[in-house]
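[Automated response] Your request has been received and processed.

Submitted sequence:
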Amino acid sequence: MKQAEPGTRIEETSVNGDPGWWLEGKPHMIVVIESPDRMRPETLRLAANTLVWEHGGVTYRIESKLSKAEAMRIAVGLP
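Generated structure:
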């Protein structure tokens, strides 16, 4: 789960027809879901621009200083 502060834009997108999200702007926090009733914020670092998508039950992410177009170009080329 991602938690974004004001100044971070979250845009729904898709990668090869699979659901995805593009996050950009201010750094955002990652929240790890350990069980249905327990979430743990990952406070060791804040994430940069990120493309996240799911395919076949696996969640993928590209975190970098790349633009959305550059991250999408990489993502669509993955098997």
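Summary generated for your ticket: The first helix runs from residue 68 to 76. Residues 27 and 48 are 5 Å apart (CA to CA).
If you did not submit this request, please reply to this message.
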